[in-house]
Amino acid sequence: MIRSELIQKIAEENPHLYQRDVEKIVNVIFDRIVEAMAQGNRVELRGFGAFSVKKRDGRTGRNPRTGEAVDVDEKHVPFFKTGKLLRDRLNDKGIVPEEDLPAEGL
User: Which UniProt keywords apply (predicted)?
Assistant: First the structure.
């Protein structure tokens, strides 16, 4: 599912909200997650998972074309760990086609 599909689905399930308002809400949520992670904070959505930032130390890598040694700087990368509810739902029932999911989805 991509962002526009998420916005469309939420708008369909909440006919009392304008689509432009749903889009603003989704964008604010994503922006806050990104801001928190940029500050090095962890963002937890209970039952879904947690977003965090992990530090990767600098190292010496290899250029795959030439085999030449290349210094790779340290960097920070996003990390997502699934929540227990999401893991259980995927493992107990397997991955269920979207048309077989109940109306409330995940």
Answer: DNA recombination, DNA-binding, Transcription, Transcription regulation, Translation regulation
